[in-house]
Amino acid sequence: MKKMSIAVIVSLVLVGSLTFKYANAENSTNNLNYGDVIQYAINENSDLKILNEKIKLADEKYDDALDEKDEEANTSIETDKRKEVYHLKAKLELENAKWNKEQKQNQVDLEVTKKYYSILIQDELIDLQKQQIQRLEKQLEKKQKEFEAGITSKNSLMDYELILEQSKIKLEALNNEKQKMIMELNINMGREVNQELILEEKEIPYKEYKVDNLDETIKRMRETYYAVTRVEDEIKATVQDKNITQQYNDSDQYDNYIEGLEDKIVNLNYETEDEQKDIEYKIRSDYNNILKLSNEIKIKKLDYDNKVKLLELADTKLEKGLITELEYRPFEEDASNALQDYEKAKLNYYIAIEDFKFFIR
């Protein structure tokens, strides 16, 4: 049996990324790939179902407004508003509904993606812990024979028994945490909470991300981002509504209504400025975070490589009897923890990039 994670970790360093492997499930319905998980989660999300209904209703309302656009109403002002205003407002409602769905779907996508890869990371940690336990069990057998032969002391034997028990407790904790993750993902997909779930192997995507010209991106987004164009379209519809209403305000009967529209236009103009400032802040802030996470990956990778080297040295010393199992164990734990930190750093980086790319698309 190979030492704990030497073969595994060293090979991972050479490859540069992890591939997580899972046993085949007897029930193929529990074997899901990444695309399946995302699609199930999107299909079963209650908020998305509600938003789909809102889109359907808004679409029907918009079709009705277009059908009535050239129809005569009971009053001239209503006829003009049918022609120039109502279909614009209905279109805005439809676009808002579609926009809200896109935002929610992206949120669901990223949340489920993070859970998917987190389970894969957890499963790799479980595999490493099992390897540790298998090695400790063999070491304990050897110590037991040495004790029976009077070569080693009872205290030394008890140390190995304690370490093995601690390793089994940690494995149980890792399995419990994984089960919690699976239950959460099952809920996201509309499955039974305790239903078995085996995920297809998939590497955490990792590629350095850079924006060539951040200022140009900000300029473009200040002009074209939906939160800005939506307000601009709403201003146009409101101005059109006001202009038509003023044409029929000979007796000042629409004064209050017109005043309300004017106040709305002023507020919408301020809203445009606020949205543009928020867009710039978000882009700069999120991109700075991506750069920070990129540096964090590099730091975690260096730490991981260093822990692997220390583990290799400790492995050699253990084989030669220069250190005890008790002294060897911290090196093993450090390598496993460094591996976990490195993979989590890659995952956080990937999620941050995908969210940023969705925003500036």
UniProtKB/TrEMBL annotation:
<keyword id="KW-0812">Transmembrane</keyword>
<keyword id="KW-0998">Cell outer membrane</keyword>
<keyword id="KW-0732">Signal</keyword>
<keyword id="KW-0472">Membrane</keyword>
<dbReference type="InterPro" id="IPR051906">
    <property type="entry name" value="TolC-like"/>
</dbReference>
<keyword id="KW-0175">Coiled coil</keyword>
<protein>
    <submittedName>
        <fullName>TolC family protein</fullName>
    </submittedName>
</protein>
<feature type="signal peptide">
    <location>
        <begin position="1"/>
        <end position="25"/>
    </location>
</feature>
<feature type="coiled-coil region">
    <location>
        <begin position="48"/>
        <end position="184"/>
    </location>
</feature>
<keyword id="KW-1134">Transmembrane beta strand</keyword>
